[in-house]
Amino acid sequence: MKLENKKAIVTGAAKGMGAAITTTLAREGADIVLAARDIEALEEVAKEVRALGRQAHTVACDVIDESQVKAMVDGALDFFDGRIDLLVNVAGVTGPIETPIQDIAAEDFDHVIIANERGTFLPIKHVAPTMIAQKSGKIVNIGGTSGLRGYPMRTAYSASKWAVRGITRTVALELGKYNINVNAVCPGIVETPRMMKLCEGKAKVRGWTVQEVYDEYVEDMALKRVTTPQDVANAVLFVASEDSRQITGQHIAVDGGWDV
After folding, report:
1. Listed residue (70, 89, 83) closest to 18, CA to CA
2. What are the start-end ranges of the E strands in the chain?
3. Where are the domains of the chain?
4. What is the CB neighbour count within 10 angstroms for residue 176?
5. Which of 151, 157, 178, 214 is catalytic?
6. What is the pLDDT of residues 148-162, one digit of tens each?
């Protein structure tokens, strides 16, 4: 197994990509602390982790609240006897959709920026000292292909995902001397309930059917198929394992060729 006995934290582990990433890491041997706001959904994923023979501990945590993040990391250190090998930052929000910049409320813009940027920054801040002390670690941030190119009508979300790339590259430079790899996996649209909500929102604004919006996404992709949560999880596994030992400060787009 690629992650045998590794100790991992996954934020946003309750649903969709986060759940797929969590079970994939467990299948490859990792014990996991699962963090999210929805503790009931977390417990369902934790059951799957335990069924795979790995340890799982759930924590209700809002990743923009520093006191909660610190408590979550401290709890993980207790659970893992002082070691953290892997941090995967999945938690995030989508914000306003199909909304031109002049119509975005300032508070809605702030919400997305804070959730996606601060929610990436704080777990890294509190995990980094442990990884520095043990002189090893892997940090994987979930960005988005909207952080690789412009994304009309999604200013807040696109800005936040560009920032995640900036955090990734900068922290990679800071932590590389401690044998810590920091990379980003950047999904495009992913086949989850969140995608359907996005399609529904766009369809309502445009006066289209949901299927027409879905088909537009597919047509924009070189491979003409939508990314699954498992596609994203497979990329996370690669950058979380020793297969990527010489890769840091980089992003991997998992988008079916949307950004080509």
Report:
1. 89
2. 7-11, 31-36, 56-60, 86-89, 137-142, 180-187, 251-254
3. 7-190+227-254
4. 13
5. 157
6. 999 999 999 999 999
In one-letter notation, the amino acid at residue 11 is: T
| Domain 7-190+227-254 of CATH type 1.20.81.30 | no
Q: What is the pLDDT of residues 162-188, one digit of tens each?
A: 999 999 999 999 999 999 999 999 999
51-62 b/e with 16+ CB inside 10 Å = b? Answer: ebebbbbbbebb
Q: Is 178 among the catalytic positions? A: no
Residue type, 17: M
pTM, rounded to two decimals = 0.96
Please return the burial class of 234, using the count of CB atoms within 10 Å of its CB with bins 0-12, 13-18 and 19+: middle
Query: In angstroms, how far is CA 260 from the centroid of its own chain?
Result: 22
